[in-house]
Amino acid sequence: MLGFLIRRIIQSIFVMLAVALIAFMMFRFMGDPVNSLVAENATVEERDAVRERLGLDQPLWVQYGRFVARAATGDFGLSWRNARPVSTLLAERFPATAELVLVAAGLSLLLGIPLGILTALRPHSFSTQTLQFFSLIGISLPTFVTGILLILVFSVWLGWLPSFGRGTVVDIGWWSTGFLTLSGLKALVLPSVMLCLFQLTLIMRLVRAEMMEVLRTDYIKFARARGLTNRSIHFRHALKNTLIPVITIFGLQLGGLIAFAIVTETVFQWPGMGALFIQAVSFGDVPVMAAYLVLVSLIFVVINTTVDLLYAVLDPRLRVDGARAAH
């Protein structure tokens, strides 16, 4: 297990170095940053002074090493648009995205797993056919269309929920949360439903397929022959093996929720990192784009490594195979 963890950490370091290289090259291909930091009538001497202050007169490999060293400490420089530290901008926007993703992920698990079990245990019932129909719509319908429909129904027609913004938030240190106010909770409903809908339908269909496959295996037949109750067979033996691949998919999708919350934040004008990234793209704010790329990649790497470790804990066969490979 220790060897597996060390290998995963080494792989993660190389992945992050590759991502850092891509982020660093954005500075090279998005034009000369000096043009964005000086006045149009700046002299050559002033431009050279800025270039020297930023270290742009150094060799490329020196600039890359300095970029990696600063990124490792969370220093991505100043935003070209806001003239503020990029790390500060991300820290201000991260709580909004984190809470949105947390609620969406929780909804997808709390609803997707029970619905998947229900449709697997009753494959020919009317409720299963109805859920399958709506799950197909949930997977096929573009996310932004879902968001617009939710706004139309629950904000415009019914007037129950707000259509944009985060509502009133409470500051707890550097973290701002909407969980402690009614308006914050109401503002969270529609964007979290929009963000979780695809994940919910995916988890439901995955649990259903895995559960039906597990119920056809020999050890389930032996459990029935021993006289075990359906409750014990379904929820003690079958469900445990059903959830192993679900954990892997959910871990990957959790990173996807963070990366692709951009669409949700744009539709609902949610003040998160995705909205900040869209603004950075519009204004060519390369430091913010590079920092967003590195941060999201880091989250992906951490989640994937954690999922791999959980997978090895839940499935003893992986530990046995790893031990054999080590010998």
Automatic annotation (TrEMBL):
It comes from Hoeflea olei. Coiled coil: none annotated. This is ABC transporter permease. One of its GO terms (cellular component) is plasma membrane. Belongs to the binding-protein-dependent transport system permease family. GO terms for biological process: transmembrane transport. Keywords: Cell membrane, Membrane, Transmembrane, Transmembrane helix, Transport. Its main location: membrane. Residues 94-311 form the ABC transmembrane type-1 domain. The keyword Manganese does not apply.
